[in-house]
Design goal:
With 69 residues, the protein is mostly helical. 88% of the residues lie in helices and 0% in strands. It is flat, with a radius of gyration of 13 Å.
Length: 69
């Protein structure tokens, strides 16, 4: 039931962060971008797997969308 809302939220975050993530990736090294992405992925996975509330779901979705942004 929440799948469409999750997809909309992910696309909104992706659209908002897309340009700024591109600017940041032009200014710092590829290794730092990769490390930041891995840390975001770990944080998103922990939020989605272990935290038991709707707020944690929102946090996990936003963090997960940041990875794609």
């Amino acid at each position: 039931m929440l799948v469409p809302a999750v997809l909309v939220a992910m696309n909104v975050v992706y659209a908002v962060l897309g340009l700024s993530a591109g600017v940041i990736s032009d200014r710092i090294s590829r290794t730092a971008v990769l490390a930041g992405g891995i840390l975001l992925l770990i944080a998103a996975d922990i939020a989605l797997a272990l935290l038991p509330s709707i707020g944690a779901l929102r946090l996990g979705v936003v963090l997960w969308a940041c990875i794609w942004g």
